[in-house]
Write a structure and sequence with these properties.
Shape: elongated
Distance between the termini: 56 Å
Strand content: under 5%
Number of domains: 2
Helix content: 40-55%
Order of helices and strands: HEEEHHHHHHHHHHEEHHHH
Number of helices: 15
Largest sheet: 3 strands, antiparallel
């Protein structure tokens, strides 16, 4: 199985989990009645399985994790599978924000490969399943859960793939799984039969190789979608351009000195000492009023631009 086939197989499951070809690294989900409780990330790993703890532990221990120190205090409760975390708004906000961190994205990719893709590939190989579509089915069951249960049911009812054919066996597996989901006592699981319907449609289209392009749940999967890099939302704004204002202790530095010099050029008499004191705030307010700006005595991007800084 080549890399593009692997990405295509994973993309199908990403769409099932988050609606996006590459997945949504920051997606936090909590559905009433979901026994997995809080779920997170590109492949929606769960609190109740203990895998959310393992993922966040990896991230916290990774070099350069932007939200590592903020998430570290949650490790024990994640390890304990504390379901009260379902309603922890701070944790949810941190997880969502961490999804934009390239370190989190890299850790999720490695974690989901180690925890789900590699075991699924081994399981498929053991059964003689080599088609990318068949491997995608096995991977989906590892992500969604209950692979072993439905596999054993299919083996008992339909024999081993070597006794029929790999394609016939995996089609029967999908049919068994669909029936199981459709009649499950958990109504949320009943609604996930669409996963099997997508696989059956691909089988009916004879797309066992997952040849591009194709669609899953109305989402187009093509080479461009698979090869685009995950977005990196990091600001390139100059960190030195802080908002200047009256504070205790007073703000000071080269940026305050530049402000004072700009106000001198505008005709104000100021002692240039690089300290934002009450007198400087008063003058800023005067200049803001003259320029027709909002008068608040603070030098943010709008006032800075008006002053030519």
């Amino acid at each position: 199985m080549n890399e593009i086939e692997k990405k295509a197989a994973q993309a199908v499951v990403n769409i099932f989990e988050t609606g996006a070809v590459l997945g949504d690294y920051g997606k936090v989900t909590l559905l009433p009645g979901d026994t997995g409780h809080l779920t997170y990330g590109r492949a929606q790993t769960t609190l109740a399985s203990g895998n959310l703890f393992l993922l966040i532990k990896r991230y916290v221990n990774a070099a350069g994790a932007a939200f590592g120190r903020h998430l570290e205090p949650y490790l024990q409760r994640l390890s304990d599978m504390d379901v009260s975390l379902d309603f922890d708004a701070t944790l949810k906000a941190l997880l969502e924000a961490a999804g934009d961190d390239p370190v989190m994205q890299e850790e999720q990719d490695r974690f989901f490969d180690d925890a789900y893709w590699a075991p699924a590939a081994r399981a498929a190989e053991a059964l003689g399943l080599t088609d990318p579509l068949a491997i995608a089915v096995v991977y989906d069951s590892h992500i969604h859960g209950s692979w072993r249960f439905i596999k054993n049911r299919t083996l008992e009812r339909h024999g081993h793939p070597s006794e029929t054919s790999a394609r016939s066996w995996i089609r029967r597996y999908v049919a068994e799984r669909r029936d199981w989901l459709a009649s499950h006592r958990n109504r949320l699981l009943q609604k996930t039969v669409y996963r099997m319907d997508v696989f059956l449609a691909l089988m009916d289209a004879d797309n066992w190789a997952l040849d591009l392009p194709f669609t899953a749940r109305g989402v187009r999967i093509d080479r461009d979608a698979l090869e685009v890099a995950a977005p990196v939302r990091v600001t390139a704004e100059d960190a030195g351009l802080r908002t200047l204002k009256l504070a205790d202790p007073p703000m000071s530095g080269a940026d305050v000195r530049e402000l004072e010099e700009a106000l001198i050029e505008a005709g104000y008499a100021i002692n240039v000492d690089g300290i934002f004191d009450a007198n400087l705030e008063r003058i800023v307010r005067e200049r803001q009023k003259e320029l027709g700006l909002g008068v608040d005595g603070m030098v943010g991007p709008i006032t800075r631009s008006a002053l030519g800084l």
